[in-house]
Amino acid sequence: MMKRAIVLSIVALFAVAAGVSAQLYPGYNMIAPPVVPFDPSPTSVFPAPLDPGGMDSLIRYDAATQGYVFFDPMFPEDYGGVLLGDGAWFLSSHAGTINWPTYAGAPDGLPDSTGQMTDMWISLPKTGFTMVGHPFNHVVDAANVLFTDGTQTISWDAAAAAGWFDGGLWGYDGPTQGYFSVGTDPMMYDRTQLEPTHGYWIKTSRDNLAMIVPA
Q1: Averaged in consecutive runs of 10 residues, what is the pLDDT profile of the chain (215 residues)?
Q2: Burial state string for 36-68 with b = 16 or more CB within 10 A and e = fewer than 16
Q3: H-only helix segments in 90-195
Q4: Dihedrals φ, ψ of 185, to 5°?
Q5: How far apart are CA 206 and CA 125, in angstroms?
């Protein structure tokens, strides 16, 4: 009985991400799923019509080739899976909402063996642009984000000073259809936090980096 109760508790923990949604605006939306996807297929991760009326598009950016990949319902394998920390463009013909009320995934991160949520590592594989996604369902201060090259792990500002990236990320505001900046200094950047369901551009100057977003 005790073993069955433990199993049921684990299933309940990972079964849903309740009450999470992303607002879509007419035009471009840069979005990211706020949960760790168990089924990484786009139609599962984004439980909304991907192409209602033939007007909408889901688009990811492949950092390895520095090029865009469009989702085609006829050839979904070409798009690939939606991975942890991915951002994507959603070109919408109308206002709407992507809901994750009963989405199969780990809500707000993955726990370690002690039950503590683990930090999320987002790969930045190649010099140039990467579209990343905030992996949590809570805000995270940019000042608490770390970067690593595999030999050293340093702060956001130290990584910028070392020339790993330019010190800022770029998000996209649906209502105004314009970019906003994210960084550690509120006098230099529009925002200082990474936000749930948001995707961001980052431009790196070195290969094989990773961004570590704390739980």
Answers
A1: 37 46 90 77 71 73 93 86 89 81 54 69 95 92 97 98 97 96 98 96 97 92
A2: bbeebebbbbbebebeeeeebbbbbbebeeeee
A3: 156-161
A4: -100, 115
A5: 8
pLDDT of amino acid 75: 85
What are the angstrom distances between the C-alpha of 53 and each of 33, 56, 69, 95, 139? 23, 8, 20, 14, 34
Six-digit token string for 202: 């980052």
Give residue 3's pLDDT.
38
Q: What angle do CA 167, 148, 183 make, to 5 degrees?
A: 20
What 3-state DSSP class applies to 154?
Answer: strand
Half-sphere exposure at residue 115, Cβ-oriented, CA atoms within 13 angstroms: 3
CA angle in degrees (0–180, nearest 5) for 47-25-211: 70
The rounded distance, in Å, linking the Cα atoms of 134 and 143 is 14
d(C-alpha 52, C-alpha 203), whole Å: 33
